[in-house]
Amino acid sequence: QEDKNDNFKDVWDGSEKNMQKLLNGKNFFSLLFTKLRLIIIAVSISVSVVTISAQETARYQPQQPQYDNLKYGVPGRADTIVEREGYALGYIEKHEQPSLVCYIVTKEELSIRAAKRTNNFRADPAIPTGSANPADYTRSGFDRGHLAPAADMSFSPQAMSDSFFMSNMSPQRPQFNRGIWGKLEKQIRRFANREGMIVVVTGPILPETPTITIGRSKVTVPEYYYKVVYDLTPPQKMIGFILPNKGSRADLRSFAVTVDRVEELTGLDFFSLVPQPQQEALEKTISVESWDWIR
C-alpha cells in the first residue's frame, strides 16, 4: 500500500536547485548515526544533470563527489546523466527510460531501516526534455518496473523517494517484474550481504528502433534486461545476467553470463575505470559456484 507519510515528499524550488531536507522526529536520530556517506548527503542534497556522448564517457567526472555510484565509470552514452544519493542513471530520450542505472549495495546499508516504501511514482523534473510519467503505464498491461530497486534504498528517506522517479522505471510484463526480476533483485541483496559491498549496473537492452511502445510518451517496451555485478571483496569477481521480459520459473543461474557477453549485447563498457588487465580478466570469466545462491 502507498505510504502517505508527508515528511518525505520531495520539495522542488526549480530545476537543479537543492531539495528541501525534511528530517525530523525519530527518523532524524536513525539517520544521524549512519556512515559518513549518508551524513554528508543529508547535509547537502543535490542532483547533477549532464549530457555526454559515447566518446566522453571515459573522461566523465562525477559532478557530485559525495555520491559514489559512478566511481567505476560511466558505461555508455546518454542524453542525460543524473547522479543521486542512491543511484546514477543514463537517460535515453528516444526510449523514455534509462539505458543504464548504476548503484552500490552494501551489507551495512541493507541493515538500515530508515525509510519505508513510498509508491510515490512521478515524473522526474531532472530530465530536461521531460521523463515518462505514470499515466504512460496506466492500462498498458505493463508494470512500472524499478531498475534501482526500492528495497535497496531503505537506508535513506531521500534515496527511497528518488527510486520512484519515472526515470528509474522501464515497462516490464507483470509476470516478469513480480517474478524472476524480483527474484534476481533479492538474490543480489544476498550477494551484498555475503560479500559486504557490490557494484551493480542494470537496465533494458534497447532496440535501435522501438517496435512496441506504451503511453503518450511512447515508452519503448524492451525484450530483454541485463544486470552486471562486481564483487569488490577479495578475491574479486564479476557476473552478468540477461533475462527476457517475460515470466520464468527457470533457475537464476541459467541466465548467468560473462560481463563481456553483456557488453556485446548492449554496446556498453562496464567498469571502465578498473585497471585494464584486471578488468579484462574479471569480465571474460564467471564462476557460478563462487557466488552465494538462495536455495
Average predicted confidence as pLDDT = 86
Order of helices and strands: HHEEEEHEHEHEEEEEEHH
So what's the oligomer here?
A: single chain
Strand content: 15-25%
Rg, Å, rounded? 18 Å
Number of helices: 7
Low-confidence spans: 1-45
Describe the fold and architecture.
This protein is α+β, with helices and mostly antiparallel strands and 295 residues long. The strands form three sheets. It has an eight-stranded antiparallel sheet. It has a two-stranded antiparallel ribbon with strand order 5-6. A hairpin with a 5-residue loop joins β10 and β11. The two termini are 29 Å apart. The N terminus is likely disordered.
Question: What's the short story on this structure?
Answer:
The protein is an alpha+beta fold and 295 residues long. Helix content is 22%, strand content 22%.
